[in-house]
Amino acid sequence: MEQENIYKIRHSLSHLLAGAVLSFYPDAKLAIGPAIDTGFYYDFEFTTPIGDKDLGKIEQKMRELLKKWSAFEKKEITFDEAKKLFANQPYKLELIADLEKDGSSPTIYVSGDFTDLCAGPHVATTKEIPSGAFKLERIAGAYWRGNEKNKMLTRIYGLAFESKEKLEEYITLKAEAEKRDHKKIGKELELFMFHETAPGMPYWLTKGLIIYNELVNYWRIKHNTLGYQEICSPLVNKSDLWKISGHWDHYKEDMFIADMGENEVYGIKPMNCPNAMLVYKSKPRSYKELPLRLSDTDRLHRYERSGTLNGLLRCRSFQQDDAHNFITEDMVASEYENIFAICKEFYGIFNLEYSFRLGTRPLNGFLGDVETWDKAETALKGILENSGKKYIIAEGDGAFYGPKIDILMKDALGRDWQMGTIQLDFQLPRRFELEYTDNEGKKKTPVVIHRVIYGSLERFLGVFIEHCEGNFPLWMSPTQIKIIPVRENHNQFAQDIANELKALNIRVDFDGSDEGMGKKIRNGKNNKVPYMLVIGDKEIESGELALEIRDGAKQEKVTLENLKIKLQKEISERL
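RESULT FIELD:
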């Protein structure tokens, strides 16, 4: 079924939902009811609260109305008629006022005895709506027009697909996604936590910080070998810097601002770009220094709205595997090839599938001239064609200072996630008056490529936790092997093994507690430890160790020396 048809079905179902709600709650106030990617929703203001327990009767009423309604009839009316028709609906009156202000004509859709202010489109007849292919899903709160200063409304979500089979497939996939929810797994494995005093800002706990640092250490080692120079810059800068970069005009609403009085206003940095420009400008530069690749993993802060926060996937505080590569114009293609090679390697160690998306010039609010933008976009299209990777184009989705290539990662459930980004920028070097001396002694302006491969490390780890269900590869695992003595008289032998492995920087959990062996093994499995050793009389006498692998599919008999070699080899394979 074409996308346009499913959109019409979903939008028509939102009207069906509103009609069903009014049949039970005639004094409910109607807000808006659009179609969304998985179905539809409608926002209401109720005089008495409703809950998920009420969804069943509302859904049943929708099915009854579906048999009674025959069509969605569109009518154009005057503003006076619209105000009279919706006199008792304050949110509709506000929308009507907006239409009047914009000079647009109000239209309504009539279905059965239900009438709604709407621009459409809808299905021509209710026969086009498959009765078994929709389901009311849940209730949530939503601010009117997404503004925290406005009233909180009740949002009812519904699912709708082309067929009953597609609906059931989605519900199954959603249940699997809930099982893999990184917030749930993060709590169970004690990786991170959040607190209401710092919304959207994760606390990394001991085990989670090991994973985080391993990812950063891998990034640091690889970039050092590739000629990147790591820097660290201030967390807070005066507004003057953000005005030069253009962020004060284009990004201020998404920044944390600190007004210190006495004409001193600071911005907590949401990205590293302006600071990298200052480092480049700190001394004269020659063409011989280019490409100059300045990398950093500084902490960033962005004022994401509270309604958009979602664990590690949407944070206010995060780090990126960031870099700003200063190059000459004729280096653009070769530098992108180098960055694409990093993408291949970095995603390859996790066996992750990915593709690219090209974001072109925004319709409004972009820096620079159209000619420069066109040149940059043409260059990136050619580079993408030569890359051999699948890519799509998102018109108008570029950064305000240049076009960008986003990295789209596919997880184990087939979901696409936007992760890293590679942005080509002719504008900021000009705004910061950056220069280099070419081989003829002339002053020229460099081009800069802003690039993050994983993107937000928090977001990447959130997605990867769901992808692998918390079964981290050995090199990242907080505990790489758990050693369990059967009885107290086995403790010393087991402790000696643990000490030898620790001496090789292998992360060992020696469990010599009084807990029963069965419970110790369950704890290891629940904590998703990659390997476990159970040490008893047989192991001490033979010197052969029974190595249990995380998935429980098999056991290996190994000597201690072979175990050391095996673990070291597997840990080092990422490099």
